[in-house]
Amino acid sequence: MINFWTVKVIRFVTIFFVIAVIVASYFYPGGNIHDSTQLGYSFTHNFLSDLGGLESHSGESNIISSIFFNLSMLLFFFIGISFLFVPILFKENKPTFILATTGSLFFFIGSMFFAGVGFTPYDVFFDLHVYFALNSFKLMIPASLIYLIVFLRSSLGIRYISVIATFLFFVTAYVIYLNFGESPLTDKQAMIISATIQKFIALMSVATVFSLSFGFSKRINHSK
Cβ(123)–Cβ(186) under 8 Å? Predict the structure, then answer.
């Protein structure tokens, strides 16, 4: 059971997300928030959320892309469930176990917010969609900070300490940028920068969680 949730589920959801985004990008009709005539999906001119809209910015139906993208986001619900099992891997030390439990609660809530992104297409529930998207990354800051401490207190290894520390640095920088950077809705250049950074952070997020599943597997094998 513990291996299923902390290893298999995490790997499946993260891999499915990458595949789903690629498929959704392929079927995206076109358009961005500043140019409805753009053909297809652009890495630098479209946000990931554009893939989840029921209608593309070009005005065409976006049903195929929205199904793949929104489903991939909804599956993050299971990532949240997975992290509720992770503290069990650190139960031999009570303070570390308590820290891991606290960190997992932040990961759980953050994952629920990621799932909320898929539940609220931007062209139907714009304000709610933005709320879920922005706060999901904010919740990753305390989650990753606490787990950095957990990894430092445990024997998980420098590789995973480096992974979570790097993620903490970049997600914190991203949240600062979101709060103080220029709005992509009013400036085209700001849109390009923001859309590009978003892809980097999204890829780093799934890569981080995917990588941690190997650390969790290591803890499981060590306890046997």
Answer: no
Cβ atoms of 46 and 53 closer than 8 Å:
no
- Which sign does the torsion angle of CA 174, 179, 180, 186 carry? positive
Q: Which residue reads 């920068």 in tokens? A: 193
The answer to whether the Cα torsion of 51, 53, 54, 58 is positive or negative is negative
Tokens of 128: 């709610």
Tokens of 126: 């714009």
Alpha helices (H) along 75-187: 76-85, 94-119, 126-153, 158-180
pTM above 0.90, yes or no: yes
> What pLDDT, in 10s, does the model give residues 35-57?
899 999 999 999 999 999 999 99
pLDDT tens digits, 161-187 = 999 999 999 999 999 998 887 888 887
